[in-house]
Amino acid sequence: MAFKGAIVVDTEKCKGCGVCVANCPTQTIALAKKVNSKGYPYCYMEFPDKCTGCSNCAVVCPDSVITVYRVKI
Amino acid sequence: MDVKDIINPENFVYGKSKVLTDTVMHYCPGCSHGVVHKLLAEVIEEMDIQDKTIGVSPVGCAVFAYKYIDIDWQQAAHGRAPALATATKRLYPDKYVVAYQGDGDLASIGTAEIIHACNRGENIVVIFINNAIYGMTGGQMAPTTLIDMKTATTPYGRSVELNGHPLKITELIAQLEGTCFVTRQAVHTPAGARRTKRAIRKAFENSAQKKGTSLIEVVSTCNSNWKMSPVQANEWMVENMFPFYPLGDLKDR
Fold first, then answer.
1. Owning domain of residue A43
2. Which of B66, B136, B172, B227 has the fewest CB atoms found within 10 Å of its own CB?
3. Residues B142-191 pLDDT 10s
4. What is the CATH number of the domain that holds A18?
5. Which of B1, B2, B3, B188 to mutate to test the interface with A (most CBs of A within 10 A)?
6. Which of A8, A61, A73 is facing B7, going by the closest CB pair?
7. Which residue of B has its CA nearest to A25?
């Protein structure tokens, strides 16, 4: 059974710590080149096709800015 | 399948706990406090005890915990969270009482309070964040600072002759008769965070069964005062903190 996922990031609350990037097993997430109003580069799905919706990024996120969605395919 | 089709309420699997408030946490980027707050909020939400839980926030970085987790809170004087938690639990025996402390608070100024609260076996939950440094005041040496670790007050590294040995307070507490569950966890990986969450849940269940004091030490990072990036700090913690503070259950009965 395969899964496909997607994340939604609350970009204004993201502090760009990069812990989600280091813990993403499929290297889906990266820090954006742009910054939010506080000057932090926020995380986003650089390769949306790779996301499996495992929610590891959201579990380690200290600021709970990531929401995870997942579907079976 | 397009991303827009996946992002749909019926496909939701994980998000922010309802027990957390919308206030943006003041913690530095990548701070372990945020993860532990989230896990605590998730346990409270899953056990449906939001209106039955009273937290005691410490002095230290987590002093504003009451802004972030939507339960009843008290704010203790420095190190006195277990004493305040004792009083709260005795006055409201059917509530869940959780004391949230850092290493400067619990292992230094509050040593007497934690030892005696644990020795009396108060039915409280204690969450102990150990990042081996005083975070809020600017990175001074804490009792838990490792040998040769550089801090603001030990610029050449902590030495045994001058500063003594690091304090393994969790091992001390595990020997006390009043404690029922003493464990050491870390939240730098998803697996570690999930284990910590199970430990917090177990601690709350022990509290309901009146088994005694449960203490969960979370080996944490302080990337600002360690002067590293959050990811580097996690790696440093694995390399240097874990050999001295090994993870696992010290006591479970």
1. 3-72
2. B227
3. 999 999 999 999 999 999 999 999 999 999 999 999 999 999 999 999 99
4. 3.30.70.20
5. B3
6. A8
7. B190
Tally of domains in chain A: 1
ipTM metric: 0.94
**Domain range list for chain B:** 3-252
Which residues of A fall below an 8 Å CB-CB distance to B?
Answer: 4-6, 8, 13, 15-19, 21-23, 40, 45, 48, 53, 55-56, 58-71, 73
Chain B: closest CA distance from residue A61 (Å):
6
CATH 3.40.50.970 fits B3-252, yes or no: yes
